[in-house]
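Run log // design_07
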């Protein structure tokens, strides 16, 4: 399933756009035989697990966190993204401003890495 999430995220990055969590789930369902619930705790769990996997995979390959393109309806990643970034990169993101700057920089790197 992680490959499906990665494919949808790369497509968004190629277009240099973000994608909401709900749209990500819908697009994964379009290309997957195994359907993911679109709401509820199971959906959140599957989304979180796969986004973390994609981020870890991309960083291990020497690339930025591909999951930076996935955002909430508010247009901003969830706290889980920032906790993972702190763990992966060994950094501290103490304030909202720290998180905003980190995300914007990571998103720019993703667009440069994966964009057309």
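design_07 sequence
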């Amino acid at each position: 399933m992680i490959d499906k999430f990665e494919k949808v995220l790369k497509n968004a990055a190629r277009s240099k756009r973000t994608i909401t969590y709900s749209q990500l789930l819908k697009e994964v369902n379009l290309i997957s035989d195994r359907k993911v619930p679109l709401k509820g705790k199971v959906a959140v769990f599957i989304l979180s697990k796969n986004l973390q996997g994609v981020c870890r995979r991309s960083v291990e390959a020497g690339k930025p966190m591909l999951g930076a393109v996935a955002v909430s309806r508010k247009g901003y990643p969830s706290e889980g993204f920032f906790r993972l970034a702190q763990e992966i990169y060994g950094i501290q993101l103490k304030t909202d401003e720290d998180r905003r700057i980190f995300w914007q920089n990571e998103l720019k790197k993703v667009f440069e890495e994966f964009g057309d």
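Residues 41-60 form the longest helix (20 residues).
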